[in-house]
């Protein structure tokens, strides 16, 4: 009877050893795959913008300034239509936008 128990115990231990080796092979394969993927595929970079009251206010002010700039360009193009005048309005607007933004939106909060 004890020989039979010893044989069964040896079979269980052999089966457990096979299962452990198979598990180790699977884990090694997963680790190699993860390492390969991490080298090939860059991790996504996420940009989070500020969500506070001041940040929302500055985004709104910047949007208004950009919209005003675009409206001035469209009106200049529709009114005069010539390229040199439209280009002059573009250059003048680029120089004037920081001044208008500073005067219109006092950023000292």
From TrEMBL:
TM region(s), chain numbering: 63-80, 86-105
Comp. bias intervals (Basic and acidic residues): 1-26
Keyword line? Membrane, Transmembrane, Transmembrane helix
* Annotated stretches, region: Disordered: 1-28
Highest taxon of the source? Bacteria
UniProt keyword annotation of Membrane present: yes
| Name the record gives this protein | Uncharacterized protein
Instruction: Say which species the protein is native to.
Output: Nonomuraea insulae
């Amino acid at each position: 009877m004890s020989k039979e128990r010893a044989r069964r115990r040896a079979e269980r231990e052999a089966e457990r050893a096979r299962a452990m080796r198979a598990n180790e092979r699977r884990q090694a394969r997963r680790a190699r795959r993860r390492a390969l993927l991490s080298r090939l595929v860059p991790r996504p970079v996420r940009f989070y913008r500020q969500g506070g009251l001041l940040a929302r206010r500055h985004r709104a002010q910047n949007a208004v300034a950009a919209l005003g700039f675009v409206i001035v360009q469209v009106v200049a193009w529709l009114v005069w239509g010539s390229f040199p005048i439209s280009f002059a309005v573009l250059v003048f607007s680029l120089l004037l936008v920081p001044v208008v933004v500073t005067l219109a939106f006092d950023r000292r909060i």
